[in-house]
Amino acid sequence: MNRQHIITGLDIGSNKIRIAVGQYDGDNNDLHIIGAAEHLSNGIINGNIVNVEDVVSSISSVLEKVERIIGMPIEKAVIGISGPHVKSITSQGVVAVAKADGEIKDEDIDRVLEAAQAIATPPNYEILHVVPINYKVDNQEDVKDPIGMNGVRLEVNAQIIMALSSQIKIITKCVYRTGVDVQDLVFSILADSESVLDKEQKELGVVLVNIGASTTGIAVFEEGDLLHTSVLPIGSSHITNDLAIGLRTSIKIAEQVKLEYASCVSDDIRKRDDIDLNTIDPEEGKRTMVSKYEISKITQARVEEIFDMVGKELKEIDRFGMLPSGVILTGGGSKLNGIVELAKKQLQLPVFLAKPKKINTVVDKIYDLSYSNALGLILWENKNKSDSSWNSSINFGGLISKVPKWIKSLMP
């Protein structure tokens, strides 16, 4: 097996750390997923690392699992980064076309995207991605791909995605301490879009919502462009906490109740239907009978809050109820019963559970929605390979990421 053709995606979540390994066949341009594994995550709260030793131990454990599956050590990985600290802003860049004949080349695109980065970033933040929305060549606006066109002045309207330097530093430190190199650092919701969205959805207009354990990621696309991203400080673990409080039970039992009995539509539940918590844990204690209706009311209230926050994000960019491809739900939290029906009501859009792209694999678990980020990280990196050799900077469709050039400079 050629190690040069191995791509590893590492999704470091608040609840679980998931890893997927792909093998790229340069001759046939095929990608095969050859292994996937997960392990409980410790030391991460609300998407932020709070205990380095626990995180290093958790990453090491999941690496050991997948290395046993594929029969070789992992040397480098593409890492997903998320959390409420990730911010996005719009920016403009302007340059003069370099060539005397006015023909726009790749070099001009690189220069105008660098010009868009000349902004006053918040203190202690680093730029992760510069995502062009559209270009302007002289007086011609809304240009998607200006390469080959002629002009004197080139402008770009771009999304600048940035993350807190301290979190970038600590996540790379944790990975390096396991003996694995950071091949790239990618905003998680963008990686998700690679695994579950197609070109037509992005052209028509779609919002991707990844409901994780502690956070919910949002990405809005229209006319093939990224319009907006956001990370909300709420996720499926908040439902578990609500159930633990409401049912007066442990977090462990509340999580099991959520997975097996919760529904986001309480109107469909008969009030007399009960479950016995002793069937989950015989040592539960005094209160063992709880109402399914009560469980669903608690679940519905929290999920409604999540979609209310998603709706506010859409209203801020004037896209509420106006995206023809609707809402695509992914992430472990999207597997709740009745969540599609509730999302339709709250967001006034068609809503669908994500369907990961078909890929060559015998690892069926890779199609589980909780693996959409790990798979997306592999597809992201594979898409950014210009040839059989690895490219340390990303440049496809005008999208630039210069993370590998400065990641190691943040290390102590």
Q: Can you walk me through this structure?
A:
The chain is 32% helix and 31% strand. With 412 residues, the protein is an alpha/beta fold. It folds into 3 domains: 3-82 and 165-195 and 355-389, ATPase, nucleotide binding domain (Nucleotidyltransferase, domain 5, 2-Layer Sandwich); 87-163, Dna Ligase, domain 1, CATH 3.30.1490.110; 231-353, Nucleotidyltransferase, domain 5 (2-Layer Sandwich). The strands form 6 sheets. Strands 11-6-1-2-3-19 form a 6-stranded mixed beta sheet, sandwiched between helices. A 5-stranded mixed beta sheet has the order 14-13-12-17-18, sandwiched between helices.
Rg, nearest Å: 22 Å
Percent helix among the residues? 25-40%
Gross morphology:
globular
In CATH, the homologous superfamily of the largest domain goes by the name ATPase, nucleotide binding domain
Q: Quick one: biggest sheet?
A: 6 strands, mixed
CATH top-level class of the largest domain = Alpha Beta
In terms of DSSP E residues, the strand content is 25-35%
In what order do the strands lie side by side in the largest sheet? Answer: 11-6-1-2-3-19
- Helix and strand content put the structural class at alpha/beta
Q: Distance N terminus to C terminus?
A: 34 Å
Low confidence ranges = 386-406
Number of domains: 3
Total strands: the figure is: 21
- Mean of all residue-level pLDDT scores: 87
The tally of helices reads 11
What's the architecture of the largest domain, going by CATH? Answer: 2-Layer Sandwich
CATH topology of the largest domain: Nucleotidyltransferase, domain 5
